[in-house]
Amino acid sequence: MKTTNQFLTALLMLFLLVMPMTISAQDEEPKRPEFYSVTKSYWSSNYEGTPAEWRATEKEYRDKVTSKNEYIMWSMHFMHLFTENSNEVLYVQTYPNWEAIGKAAARNAELEKEAWPDEEARNAFLDKLNSAYSIYHSDEIYATLPGAKPMDAEITEDMVLYWRLNKMAFPEDGTWDEWTTLNKKVTEDVIHKNEYVKGYYPSMHAWGSDRRDFNQVIWLDSMSALENMFDRYEELMKEALTEEEGKAYGKYFKSHGDYLYAPLKY
Questions:
Q1: CA-to-CA dists, residue 73 to 18, 241, 266, angstroms
Q2: Which letter does DSSP use for residue 66 in this model?
Q3: Which residues of 149-181 are buried (b: 16+ CB within 10 A; e: fewer)?
Q4: Residue 46: is it exposed, middle or buried by C-beta count within 10 angstroms (0-12/13-18/19+)?
């Protein structure tokens, strides 16, 4: 029988071993990010601008800096819909590999100087940009996992991002084989077959506050699709897993939180 710590170590190590490698240059499919960062910021009560001015400032930075940074594959801001703090603003960036994370920050600094050669003008713009947020923020880095259901359409402003943040449990009677078998069933026969799930992206903790984190990020067409997705999920779970398998799968989860965000229209 495995101890909790032994199973925790085995699970995390094997998660890392099965992470997809980036696709080689000769492949036609685009490279898949191996990591993404999430910066959670909060609105500043002292911000003197309007929401439109904030969006315009973020768009200018995105156009002149982020979109030109070869180490950042994709980025987007997300606004609070239903979360624990209505002042939340998420900023997500994806990277092809671990090394790109550090290189991206250095490249941003270079691109800022190219976009605003005058130091005084550059500092004024960055001060304006940062003034929208309070001084507190948090950063997490997550590793992507196999089993994604990629989006086959462009993200629209009506879409909703449902973020299920699971806290993994590591039962003493748990095994890697059992977990991977059950999770594969749920991924393929429940999540992928749920017509209300337009995109699905699983990931796990790589750097941050809690190594138990297992994320399930789902794109929905609208808020109205959320209830339909849950109803369909329950139907498909009953078809995919026996009652015994359902209980076995549940023992690997300690708890979870549900969060809804709206993508920012720049």
A1: 21, 36, 17
A2: G
A3: beeeeeeeeebbbbbebbebbbeeebeeebbee
A4: exposed
Rounded Cα gap, residues 116 and 228, in angstroms: 48
Q: Which of these, 79, 80, 76, 81, lies nearest to 94 by C-alpha position? A: 76
Q: Is 49 helix (H, G, I), strand (E, B) or coil?
A: coil
Whether 62 shows a pLDDT value over 80: the answer reads yes
Token couple for 206: 């790589």
Tokens at 108, concatenated: 């941003």
**Distance, first Cα to last Cα, the chain:** 53
From 120, 162, 192, 193, select the one nearest 261 (Cα to Cα). 162
At 249, list the tokens: 């799968």
Tokens of 58: 């973020």
DSSP-derived 3-state class of residue 74 = strand
Q: Are residues 13 and 22 in contact, defined by beta-carbon separation less than 8 angstroms?
A: no
What's the token pair of residue 55? 């969006």
Does residue 14 register a pLDDT over 90? no
Instruction: Compute, in degrees rounded to 10, the torsion defined by CA atoms 201, 203, 209, 210.
Output: 120
Q: What does the block give as tokens for 263?
A: 């993508």
At 194, list the tokens.
């749920």
pLDDT the model gives residue 32: 80
Secondary structure (3-state) at 75: strand
**Residue 6 has what pLDDT?**
47
Question: Does position 161 have pLDDT exceeding 90, yes or no?
Answer: yes
pTM of the model as a whole: 0.87
* Range 246-249 contact pairs with CB under 8 angstroms and sequence separation of 24 or more: 248/178, 248/182, 249/182, 249/183, 249/186
Comparing CA positions, the residue from 132, 77, 94, 40 lying closest to residue 264 is: 77
Amino acid 183 reads N
Enter the tokens of residue 161: 């991002």
Report residue 14 as tokens.
């094997």
